[in-house]
User: What shape does this take?
Amino acid sequence: MDAAAAAEMHVFKKPKPLRLYDQQAPLVGGDGGDDLDLDLINHLPDAILGTIVSLLPTKDGARTQAISRRWLALWRSHMAPLNLVANYQLSDDKSRVAVVSKILTDHPGPARRFSLNPTCSQSFQAEVDGWFRSASLAGLQELQVTNLPMKHYPLPQHALVRFSPTLRLLRLFGCQFPSLVAPLSFPFLEQLILYDVGISEDALETMISGSTVLKSVSLHGMRFSRLCISSPTLMSISFYALRSKGAITFKELVIRDAPCLERLLPIFPEEGPATIRVIRAPKLETLGFLSKEISTLRLGTIVFQKMIPVRLTSKMPTMKILALDVGENLDTVVDFLKCFPCLQKLYVISHQGNDMNNVRKYDPANPIECFELHLKKVVLKNYDADKKACIDFANFFILNAKVLKEMEIGILREQTDQWMWYHGTKLQVENRASRDALVKLRRDRYAIPANHGHTHDLSLTDPFEKSLCGHNKSARYQIL
Assistant: This one.
């Protein structure tokens, strides 16, 4: 090898792997200080390591005992609260009861999370009920009971009585809520998620109003004649019912007094409730999806019947985000926009059979206030670029929304770039009211309101960004 080749050659030394062991390791090893022997993980305090172990999946958390003598004691200490998820990832159905029982015996508690699917152990009901009495579950913060295949698992009364003082999250699927002699107090409950749960209106209303830090409620597949909610702390509520023999089983939802409520989310409006009444929610800023399947929508003194305005005697300046399942019915959309003068983001979903009344013209003498000052983003889903009604609908916003920053249009079916370009030319982008507006055509599958699992996540500024299936961010044609 000549000198030039040797000069260009890079020689790499194989690095020493990080080691986990139970004695303290020097931060710097070797005579020259350049041979670092780091054990950063074991330099962490036990409290931090315990938190890490508690956040791991159940099986992985238990396996940390094999790392060293220090970690053996860590998993079984109070510094690593138990995170027990009894599902197929923990073990198969035949051995799961024994595995869960052993974990509850070995771990002294307290517990952070207990997630249980009782269907795997229908013949061991006594053992399952006994788990809720285990000392390992002391101080439980999150309880999830899923039992969809077996209608309806009777949640033991002693479970709620025991855990109500410490629970922060309660998620029940396909369960029967126990009958309680006296209402329970949930002083730390922040999230309540119920799916097809057998519970009376009175019991649920009392539970919600009595949870003094409750922030989020999700009611899915529920059956109520009239549910009336009052909560001083509730920030978000999502809901839908299930039809029974074609009839809506959730008749009416009333928000009587919710001074902190920001989100009102009827996820599948065709499933109910048939009537939504908001009496007091002065901070409401996110609403949808709305459709004509909601027979009556009352927001203070504003009243819509099947999306047709009956009384528009006031406005809601707090509303920032609106999702409508109304198609290209411009009259309906404009009526809602006039109710919400400070609206910033609008979603409109179209379906076959939706009304397409879009002959309305913008009247500068009677302006839409949000068009003048606030509306920055419009998202159109299930857009059919071959229909003039759809094109006119999109152009109404392009030509009149003066502060629009972005319009996103979901095109049905896979199309070529040439097709996208041609149909993009039908949009009057050159005459757009906002010179900063960016119009994007995206290839989309058929979109419906879906994926409601994240709606309780208050860290999301806009819950609808992840609520529409079929979105493909990588496939797009952009019009500047």
